[in-house]
């Protein structure tokens, strides 16, 4: 039983970390390390940035942060 509890807790921690770090204002820091910037795919999976702009996907938000030296986070998934 103890092993099952530890395994469940470990999987929950991994799921939370994979989702992204939630910040105090409720926004999520984008996981830019998983992308090969400046190359982004064109798959439309919109995210709403904390700047009020809809980005085509998380990678495009990361690219814009890199190019403009900003720190825009993800306010929510989907369009703003």
Written overview of the protein:
By secondary structure, the chain is α+β, with helices and mostly antiparallel strands. The protein has two helices and three strands; from the N terminus they run H-E-E-H-E. It has helices at residues 2-19, 58-68; strands at 47-49, 54-55, 74-77. The protein has a three-stranded antiparallel β-sheet with strand order 2-1-3. The chain is globular and about 50 Å long.
**N/C terminus separation:** 45 Å
> Residue share in helices?
25-40%
SSE series: HEEHE
How would you sum up the major sheet?
3 strands, antiparallel
Strand content: 5-15%
The outline comes out as: globular
Strand arrangement in the largest pleated sheet:
2-1-3
The class by helix and strand makeup works out as alpha+beta
Total beta strands: 3
The value of Rg in angstroms is 15 Å
Helix segment tally: 2
Unreliable spans are 11-18
Average pLDDT, all residues: 83
List keywords for this structure.
80 residues; globular; alpha+beta; three-stranded antiparallel beta sheet; single chain
Structure summarized in a few sentences:
The protein is of the alpha+beta class. Helix content is 36%, strand content 11%. The protein has a three-stranded antiparallel sheet.
Secondary-structure map with pairings?
Elements lengths: L1 H18 L27 E3 L4 E2 L2 H11 L5 E4 L3
Antiparallel strand pairs: 1-2, 1-3
